[in-house]
Amino acid sequence: MSELTRRPSVGAPQNLEGRFATRAAGMQASEIRSLFAVASRPEIVSLAGGMPNLSALPMDMMASVVHDLIADQGAEALQYGSGQGHPKLREQICEVMALEGIRANPDDVIVTTGSQQALDLISRIFIDPGDVVLVEAPSYVGALGTFRQYEAQVVHVELDDKGLVPEALRQAITSVRATGHKIKFLYLIPNYQNPSGVLLTADRRTEILEICRKEGIFVVEDNPYGLLGFDRPSPNAMRVEDSENVIYLGSFSKTIAPGLRVGWALVPPSLKEKLVIASESSILCPSNFTQMTISSYLANQPWRDQIASFCQLYKVRRDAMLQALEDFFPASATWTKPGGGFYVWVNLPPEIDTKLMMPKAIVAKVAYVPGTAFYADGFGTWAMRLSFCHPTPERIREGVKALGHVVHEELARRGGTLELS
Ligand SMILES: Cc1ncc(COP(=O)(O)O)c(C=O)c1O
Q1: 223 CA distance to ligand 1 centroid (A)?
Q2: Which of 27, 195, 294, 402 is surrounded by the fewest CB atoms within 10 Å?
Q3: Which atom of ligand 1 is closest in space to residue 342's alpha carbon?
Q4: How far apart, in Å, do the first and last CA atoms of the chain sit?
Q5: Residues 252, 134 share a domain
């Protein structure tokens, strides 16, 4: 081997400090990611991850959809496609959105690799380092990670059991503007919010839209859980009331399957070109194969019934979790009562630090996500997110019972410490 082709010895430690771009400093593994390895051990009841429960999805049916697609349209499905997304799927996406009142033109839909990619594209075209993004308090960990990578300042706005508080939004806008920073958009999850499970009320939707329109702030409405309402349909999407100022994000991850990685953005026409160019420069085009799989599934299978069976599966698990919390958690704890989605948010007394408590929970064979994961500013030490989407109702009860013991012990220990101090 010549000197020119000789590779450096494998495994030699390299000091890369100073060689990364500045923005790489903001790239940190999320608290959820580092938890996954532990939480996925079979003996642990994981109330941590938000993985959709695919046990209700008939795999033989999916297999035949994929088989027929390749047999009949393989040459197209396995080829590059349009940067904006497959035209037929964009039409079908408009039918899906019509369930939440949206009347959209397929020309304004951009298909993405999961809605996570849409978040990345929006951040890329809007955020300069130091710009402000307003988000609910708490908010989706994956969005916080994306905003951090683009060096945004994330400002949290109060959320209560009716969703984002409009008055708090007004105050946040005033105080950010007083510092001279630009607010690029408000990011919110109006339906069965991740991580709180809260549903934004219809009158607050209107008020928030009015505030943002008046202040010239785009609203990014992230809606992966909107069709997963258990007890009644969700209110209309915010995009219904404002097609000029709302960027709507949708996903098939929770209503079909996340492995297909198909989501979308419905954007005001003025933004479309920039987003398509941004998407093409990162992925050329979304996968034709998975888009066409979804398209044939939507065309030939009873997808509305499938969503109804997912809702039934999650509702039973939600009920099991709420009952177990009632039975095993201390009276000083409070939690949300979600009408859909995957998550319950639990507030414990402030002397408890849920991150420090985590190793004890793992010993008790249960995992959750500490509240701080959902804040950009270290807030939320006394809170935790519990997801009910994956384990069986029996395992959920077992896990919440074990966690309840850990919390009781922690409270007793803290009480003891306080007496001594
Ligand atoms: C609120 C929210 N937005 C976006 C995503 C990303 O979804 P996708 O699988 O479509 O990328 C998730 C996934 O959990 C989510 O909870």
Answers
A1: 8
A2: 27
A3: 16
A4: 69
A5: yes
- Residue 12 in domain: no
Same domain flag for 246 and 329 = no
Distance 307 CA to ligand 1 centre (A): 17
Question: Which ligand 1 atom lies nearest to the CA of residue 117?
Answer: 11
Mean pLDDT by 10-residue block, N- to C-terminus, for the chain (421 residues)?
Answer: 52 71 77 71 92 94 97 98 98 97 97 98 97 98 95 97 98 97 98 98 97 98 97 90 97 97 97 97 97 97 95 98 98 97 97 94 96 95 97 97 97 63 28
Mutate which of 30, 53, 116, 123 to test ligand 1's pocket (most atoms within 8 Å of Cβ)? 116
246 and 332 part of one domain: no
Query: Following DSSP, what letter does each residue of 310-365 receive, concatenated?
Result: HHHHHHHHHHHHHHHHHHHS-TT-EE---SBSSEEEEE--TT--HHHHHHHHHHTT
284 burial type by CB count under 10 A (0-12 exposed, 13-18 middle, 19+ buried): exposed
Are 312 and 327 in the same domain?
A: yes
Residues of the domain holding 76: 59-300
Query: Which atom belonging to ligand 1 lies closest to the Cα atom of 140?
Result: 1
Torsional sign, CA 123, 126, 132, 138: negative
Q: What is the 3-state secondary structure (H, E, C) of 148-207?
A: HHCCCEEEEEEEECCEECHHHHHHHHHHHHHCCCCEEEEEECCCCCCCCCCCCCHHHHHH
User: Tell me, what CATH number does 158's domain have?
Assistant: 3.40.640.10
Residues 88 and 201 in one domain: yes
Give pLDDT, residue 414: 79
Question: Ligand 1 pocket: which of 36, 227, 253 to mutate (most atoms <8 Å of CB)?
Answer: 253
Looking up tokens 């308090």 gives: 137
Helix (H, G, I), strand (E, B) or coil at 111: strand
Ligand 1 atom closest to residue 118's alpha carbon, by position in its atom list: 11
Kindly state whether residues 163 and 119 are assigned to the same domain: yes
From ligand 1's centre to the CA of 115, what distance in Å?
6
Give domain status of residue 6, yes or no: no
Last residue of a domain, one of 237, 270, 300: 300
Question: Number of structural domains, the chain?
Answer: 2
Does 387 lie in the same domain as 285?
Answer: no
Q: 225 CA to middle of ligand 1, Å?
A: 9
C-alpha 392, offset from chain centre: 22
